[in-house]
Design brief:
single chain; 300 residues; alpha/beta; five-stranded parallel sheet; 5 strands; globular
Length: 300
């Protein structure tokens, strides 16, 4: 009963706030799954009077998004987005789906919600529609990329990615625009190759876009966030046009709400390279081969 009443209150508040809220005020945090998005989003959401919106384009958190073609990674451009898709994403960015977007176990701060200045919308399925989202809604966005071997190793251990089959990575529109990616897709077979391909195409789209529009959104890497710590976080907030929050450092030094069995000293070199303990040399070579063939040579 308490949960039902709470969701009803969030629904009323979200719809009321949405009528007075501009989507361009929202800060989007975009990253692949197991790429550090929760950690980064919690740091960004440490801004006073900012509140985190949780995975509204993921089928697990928000099954309704599947009605509009979302739920899994989707390649979407301005000429292909339908009016219904645009309206739905706008609803997400202005908080109209608040009952599903607020997760009380993930840094829930009611006062920041009631005195809201802006939302921080976290997505692990939005990389391939991030350029469209920035263009169409004028959001500020922070995009983060993590070493493919680290991501794949984490996904293999985590379990939820067992369901990612080859068909999950089939994106005909993207393949038509970039035929070389279709060739890579045809040749992948093993689970580590499928996960590596999934990582590669989700990062290929924002990276290609940044080549033409380097100021479209803010980019960082998981490794920079760990190695440079406050220096990198200070840069992110400066480029967002925000003052560095007093809570940022404490959030930076905490494991994310979705981290499993990891020490808080995530900045160590051992932490960044621990994927080597979980992957064979053969797996590492396969993962890097797939990502390089797609066109991402950031990690060698």
């Amino acid at each position: 009963m308490l949960r039902v009443l709470g969701n009803k209150a969030l629904d009323i508040y979200g719809k009321w706030r949405a009528r007075r809220y501009d989507a361009s005020n929202t800060i989007v945090v975009s990253c692949t799954g197991r790429g550090g998005s929760t950690w980064l989003a919690q740091v960004i959401a440490s801004l006073p009077r900012h509140h985190l919106l949780w995975e509204q384009l993921h089928w697990r958190s928000n099954p309704d998004c599947g009605t509009y073609g979302f739920g899994e990674p989707l390649y979407l451009t301005a000429d292909r987005a339908t009016p219904e898709q645009e309206a739905y994403v706008r609803d997400i960015l202005v908080g109209r789906t608040l009952p599903r977007a607020v997760k009380t176990q993930f840094d829930f701060r009611p006062w920041d919600l009631l005195t809201l200045r802006a939302y921080v919308a976290k997505f692990v399925t939005a990389n391939m529609l991030l350029p469209w989202m920035v263009e169409r809604f004028g959001v500020r966005a922070v995009y983060m990329i993590r070493h493919p071997c680290a991501v794949v190793a984490s996904q293999l251990r985590h379990g939820n990615w067992d369901e990612v089959e080859k068909s999950f990575c089939d994106h005909p529109v993207l393949f038509a625009e970039y035929p070389h990616i279709s060739t890579v897709f045809e040749n992948i077979q093993r689970q580590d190759e499928i996960l590596a391909f999934n990582w590669a195409i989700q990062n290929f789209v924002p990276l290609i876009y940044l080549q033409d529009f380097p100021d479209a959104f803010i980019a960082t890497t998981y490794e920079q966030m760990h190695e440079e710590r406050m220096k990198e976080v200070t840069r992110l907030f400066r480029e967002l046009g925000e003052e560095l929050p007093s809570r940022a450092e404490s959030m930076l030094n905490q494991p994310s709400a979705t981290t499993k069995n990891e020490a808080t000293s995530q900045h160590s070199q051992a932490q960044l390279a621990k994927w080597r303990r979980h992957l064979s040399e053969t797996q590492i070579n396969r993962i890097l081969s797939v990502t390089h063939e797609v066109g991402i040579s950031l990690y060698m």
